[in-house]
């Protein structure tokens, strides 16, 4: 299994994407799946790409969890997770029947659309209501199962809010950890787990953890503009790299 994992096509690109993603997630609290998935979808089959992302991210954020639990809004995170649980199985069902090329285009398109909307500066005029948070979590749950990217709708919601960057970052981190665990258990229970790819993800989870720790040290709650600029730049680069145009 180990030999099969290390012989995975495009391994060097997967490792590079995971390391960069760890830095961004440690700094911003989000963005890692949007960095890894476009690259993973260009070298792996759809289900394998999602498994790789989930396993690569299982241990990376753990050192930053205590601070996130102190700074985050646990009620909001709980509502997001409830919504995600409702829609996650439907997303996995859609993933299982998706063509690899179409999958790659959809992943990159979702990332680029998210980036355009958030960078444009759209903001919520009202508050974060309970229904809005649950509905956003449901959309995120479907995207988690379908494309391994739980963040876009949630990122769009919080980036459009007026909450401080420290709270946004903490909520992202807690929500994404919960979704990674849920998706891992769902794949396992449905008999869809590829253990060779899962092992590869866990192995590269070690440099991902180190990168998360470095990124967290770089985070400055007062540097709001830098916080957004770094995340947007890395997300844009990953979407371009992951376009199916580069296959072959």
Commentary on this structure:
- It is a single chain.
- The protein is mainly α.
- It has one domain (9-246).
- Helix content is 77%, strand content 0%.
- The protein has twelve helices and no strands.
- It has helices at residues 2-6, 11-28, 32-43, 46-56, 65-71, 74-96, 100-120, 130-147, 152-159, 165-189, 195-218, 224-241.
- α5 (65-71) crosses α10 (165-189) and α6 runs parallel beside α8 (130-147).
- The longest helix has 25 residues, at 165-189.
- It is globular.
Task: Write the element-wise H/E pattern from the N-terminal end onward.
Answer: HHHHHHHHHHHH
Sketch the major β-sheet.
none
**Pairing-aware structural class of the strands and helices?**
mainly alpha
End-to-end C-alpha gap: 26 Å
The outline comes out as globular
- The low-confidence parts are none
Count of discrete structural domains: 1
Rounded to an integer in angstroms, the radius of gyration calculated over CA atoms is 16 Å
How many β-strand stretches?
0
What fraction of residues sit in β-strands? under 5%
Average pLDDT works out at: 80
Considering DSSP H and I runs of 4 or more, what fraction of the residues is helical? over 70%
Secondary structure elements and their pairing?
Blueprint: H1 2-6, H2 11-28, H3 32-43, H4 46-56, H5 65-71, H6 74-96, H7 100-120, H8 130-147, H9 152-159, H10 165-189, H11 195-218, H12 224-241
Helix pairs in contact: 2-3, 2-11, 2-12, 3-4, 3-7, 3-12, 4-11, 5-10, 6-8, 6-10, 7-9, 7-12, 8-9
């Amino acid at each position: 299994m180990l030999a099969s994992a290390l012989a995975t096509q495009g391994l060097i690109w997967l490792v590079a994407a995971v390391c960069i993603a760890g830095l961004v997630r440690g700094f911003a609290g989000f963005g890692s799946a949007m960095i890894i998935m476009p690259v993973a979808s260009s070298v792996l089959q759809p289900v394998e790409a999602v498994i790789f992302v989930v396993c690569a991210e299982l241990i990376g954020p753990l050192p930053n969890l205590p601070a996130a639990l102190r700074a985050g809004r646990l009620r909001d995170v709980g509502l997001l997770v409830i919504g995600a649980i409702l829609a996650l199985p439907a997303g996995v069902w859609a993933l299982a029947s998706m063509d690899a090329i179409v999958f790659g285009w959809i992943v990159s398109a979702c990332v680029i659309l998210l980036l355009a909307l958030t960078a444009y500066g759209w903001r919520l005029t009202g508050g974060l209501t309970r229904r809005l948070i649950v509905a956003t979590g449901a959309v995120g749950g479907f995207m988690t199962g379908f494309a391994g990217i739980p963040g876009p709708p949630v990122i769009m919601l919080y980036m459009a809010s007026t909450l401080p960057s420290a709270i946004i970052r903490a909520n992202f981190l807690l929500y994404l950890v919960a979704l990674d665990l849920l998706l891992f258990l769902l794949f396992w229970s449905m008999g869809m787990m590829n253990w060779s790819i899962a092992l590869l993800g866990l192995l590269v989870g070690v440099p991902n953890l180190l990168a998360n720790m470095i990124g967290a040290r770089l985070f400055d709650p007062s540097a709001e503009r830098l916080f957004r600029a770094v995340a947007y730049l890395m997300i844009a680069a990953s979407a371009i790299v992951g376009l199916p145009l580069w296959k072959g």
